[in-house]
Amino acid sequence: MNSHVTRIAPDTIRLERVLPGPIGNVWSFLTESEKRGRWLASGEWELRPGGKVEMHFSHEMISPEETPAKYRDMPMSFTGRILRIDPPHLIEFTWDEADGAASEVTFELTPRGQEVILVITHRKVCGRDMLLSASAGWDVHAGILLDVLTHQPPRGFWTTHARVESEYALRFTD
């Protein structure tokens, strides 16, 4: 089930990954700043509806590769708000962009024996460039989470991102 991102609506993408459990451990990697910073972005989250979300991306900390010129001028810190939370199964939050737009991200966890199924759904993704970048980003970040949980060296973020972004460009043609 370690699949690629699928487009489930014009502005919505979804990714499913099988991760090693238990669910409480995976939940901690979604919600605790230090652990989340090892695969996605650090930052404090107020784990209650309406609580503040901070995300500070430092890709050099999760993978020893330099940020490509295409992404160097993009903001690497974002804020948002918790929309829904049901520990340790679901957390949904807004992802506020610098231009004032806000997308919505849901992390869902379902135990399956010794494994956990992580489903990431990202809604209100505007424009083809953002769709491709977000698809590649979630694909690679979830892969690095798997690497961290299985005690493997993390894959190169930017080299993998560039490769899978070009694959998504061919898959998402409209």
Question: Could you characterize what this model shows?
Answer:
With 174 residues, the chain is of the alpha+beta class. The protein has one domain (6-171): START domain (Alpha-D-Glucose-1,6-Bisphosphate, Chain A, domain 4, 2-Layer Sandwich), CATH 3.30.530. The protein is built from 6 helices and 7 strands. The protein has a 7-stranded antiparallel sheet with strand order 1-2-7-6-5-4-3, with helices on one face. Helix 5 (128-149) crosses helix 6 (157-171). The chain starts with 5 loop residues before the first strand and ends with a helix.
Q: How many distinct folded domains?
A: 1
Which radius of gyration do the C-alpha atoms yield? 15 Å
Question: So what's the overall shape?
Answer: globular
Task: Please tally the helical runs, counting DSSP H or I stretches of 4 or more residues.
Answer: 6
Helicity, in percent?
Answer: 25-40%
**Secondary-structure content class:** alpha+beta
Please name the CATH architecture.
2-Layer Sandwich
